[in-house]
Design a protein that fits this description.
By secondary structure, the chain is α+β, with helices and mostly antiparallel strands. The protein contains 13 helices and nine strands. It folds into two domains: 7-125, 2-Layer Sandwich (Phosphorylase Kinase, domain 1), CATH 3.30.200; 141-363, Aminoglycoside phosphotransferase (APH), C-terminal lobe (Aminoglycoside 3'-phosphotransferase, Chain: A, domain 2). α9 (265-275) crosses α11 (306-319) and α9 packs across α13. It is globular, with a radius of gyration of 21 Å.
Length: 366
């Protein structure tokens, strides 16, 4: 049976066929399904829906809700997702890597990859009953400490590990990809700074930061061969659920389409710049940096000095600036509604405040 083109095309018959095919349903059958689109804006690279399902039996092991992800129908975002291989990478992360990592991730229900037809589908257990931190409120100090310790554990597991390169589908920066990364970043910067509304969203001085980043992109994305690990690449509170039913391991981390081999501290840079309010970050940033570095230092065997760590943190702020700029240039803010649009704009604004507070451009070659 063909894969659905959009989440609205998912039917009872299709679900029964594929979920009996992988023995997920057992002796039960689905009798009805209701689809609700979710993740608008935050999930703009994908078409995401929550399926509310009823069965012909009272099997308590079967989920009442399932989340399904398909490639977005939004042309420019879909093209970027296909070109970057993000849809395939996320599916393969869940099926090949997640079980080997210390982070808790969503339970997978069904996946399918058809590269030739450019069709991908990922179905997972729904965690909407869990708490999802609000992007505008950001993570508080206690939650941030828990998240960062978990992040350090994840990075340490793969830090220069013997099996780090066991997954040929996970990309890393090399001479064959560096030129295209630099070109793409430069193009996004040019598009943003010349777009109406740029100056109204970002703080004063952002255009100068972008100019300096553009001048030094070759250095920023420079290739190195040590102190590398798996990098989530979109590590923020919007991609974390808190499951209070499992207090021993409450955090569920998802959205792994950006998984790559890289500088793990970039995840830390992105989390602190995007997921904390400016007020909170200014109070706890130094403490959170200390917690991460000490946790990493206790678990890895390679030499990684505190000075190198701080350089990677500031460098990460500059490298990961690509994401808020990409979001500004590609995300249709008008489709989010007033409140959601303002949340995204606020996050974009405080990202550059983080760069300014840390004088991140000071690490660039003079």
């Amino acid at each position: 049976m063909d894969l659905p083109v959009t989440t609205k095309d998912i039917t009872v018959d299709w679900l029964n066929e594929i979920l009996h095919g992988n023995d997920f349903l057992g002796d039960s059958n689905i009798v009805s399904v209701e689809s609700e689109q979710i993740g608008v804006g935050e999930g703009f690279m994908s078409d995401i829906a929550r399926l509310s399902i009823k069965y012909d039996s009272a099997n308590n092991d079967l989920p009442k809700c399932i989340v399904v992800k398909l490639p977005t129908s939004f042309p420019s975002a879909r093209e970027a997702g296909m070109k970057g291989g993000g849809y395939e990478r996320e599916i393969r992360f869940y099926t090949e890597v997640a079980s080997k990592s210390p982070l808790r991730t969503p339970e997978v229900v069904y996946t399918h990859i058809d590269k030739e037809q450019q069709q991908y589908i990922l179905m997972m257990k729904d965690y909407s009953h869990c708490k999802k931190p609000d992007m505008s409120e950001g993570a508080d100090e206690e939650l941030a400490k828990i998240i960062i310790n978990k992040l350090a554990d994840f990075h340490a597991r793969w830090w220069d590990a013997n099996d780090l390169y066991s997954f040929p589908w996970i990309p890393r920066m090399d001479t064959s990809t560096k030129a295209s990364v630099v070109e793409n970043y430069q193009s996004i910067i040019n598009e943003c700074v010349n777009t109406s509304g740029f100056e109204s969203i970002f703080p004063q001085g952002t255009d100068e930061i972008c100019r300096k980043i553009k001048e030094h992109l070759d250095w920023l994305v420079n290739i190195r061969n040590d102190n590398l690990t798996l990098q989530h690449s979109d590590f923020r509170i919007g991609n974390i659920f808190i499951d209070f039913d499992t207090p021993d391991d409450p955090l569920v981390f998802y959205d792994w389409s950006g998984i790559r081999i890289g500088i793990g501290v970039c995840d830390l840079s992105y989390f602190l710049g995007w997921s904390l309010t400016t007020t909170t970050r200014r109070i706890v940033e130094s403490e959170l940096l200390r917690i991460y570095w000490e946790a990493i230092s206790k678990q890895i065997t390679t030499e990684y000095s505190h000075d190198e760590f701080l350089l990677d943190y500031l460098r990460g702020l500059l490298v990961m600036t690509f994401i808020p700029l990409f979001s500004f240039s590609r995300l249709d803010l008008s489709s989010l509604g007033g409140k959601e649009s303002e949340k995204v704009k606020e996050a974009m604004h405080r990202w550059f405040i983080t760069l300014i507070d840390n004088n991140a451009v000071s690490v660039l070659p003079s």
